[in-house]
Amino acid sequence: xxxxxxxxxxxxxxxxxxxxxxxxxxxxxxxxxxxxxxxxxxxxxxxxxxxxxxxxxxxxxxxxxxxxxxxxxxxxxxxxxxxxxxxxxxxxxxxxxxxxxxxxxxxxxxxxxxxxxxxxxxxxxxxxxxxxxxxxxxxxxxxxxxxxxxxxxxxxxxxxxxxxxxxxxxxxxxxxxxxxxxxxxxxxxxxxxxxxxxxxxxxxxxxxxxxxxxxxxxxxxxxxxxxxxxxxxxxxxxxxxxxxxxxxxxxxxxxxxxxxxxxxxxxxxxxxxxxxxxxxxxxxxxxxxxxxxxxxxxxxx
Length: 301
Description:
The protein has helices at residues 2-9, 16-23, 39-54, 68-80, 98-105, 129-142, 158-173, 189-201, 214-226, 260-276, and strands at residues 28-33, 58-63, 85-88, 110-113, 123-127, 148-152, 183-185, 208-211, 236-241, 254-257, 286-289, 292-294.
């Protein structure tokens, strides 16, 4: 009692590093996120923190800002802080994965969410990007669109590959040809704006657009509207991620809901399960979440 009273009076704080050495656990997990400002990733963080808090774990959040070098530094920082496990969604630039192998060599559990490393043995939480992209493109086709463009993500990322494959699958099944100029790597607002201006300048005819994410779709939509093109009458648009912005555009944006909060909770549950397990050599798990299309005014006349 006397010790506790003195500790309270002197505002004593336990040394977390020392405790982690004694207990062999820091009760802290690390999170590497590409962009905190992205609504999808902020939703993921909310899910992570809720599950971690309920389990008595603290969370250290690092942002790679879509840079490989920063991702490497983030990984080193989390290991230096003796986190019990790491949740990571890789950056757009990442094509070398040595830093993740170092995490594994240090016997620190690792779970990938959304953007994963091909062939890396680890727990994963993803959505079926190919199927979701297929249904999004199919929705445009069912609305009578035949000249559908795809603004794609980086093809070194599996999500970029799978969303493009889903688009191509839907177009081929419908018997629609795909012109090379309809597929453009544009995965943010500014790139979408430039891509649309090029399409208009080169007089490339399209009547639909499936974009790799919502910001890209919104960049395309606003640029088209400034040029007097009506959405969806002349060009129907579908995005991906269903963030808050999708509901406040005019017209509201049709988008694929990735269920970011659920992804965060499931990924954290997988990580904690492995952290707290007596033996960690059980098979790695891949959780595939269903993504549903939320239809709004940007794709329906």
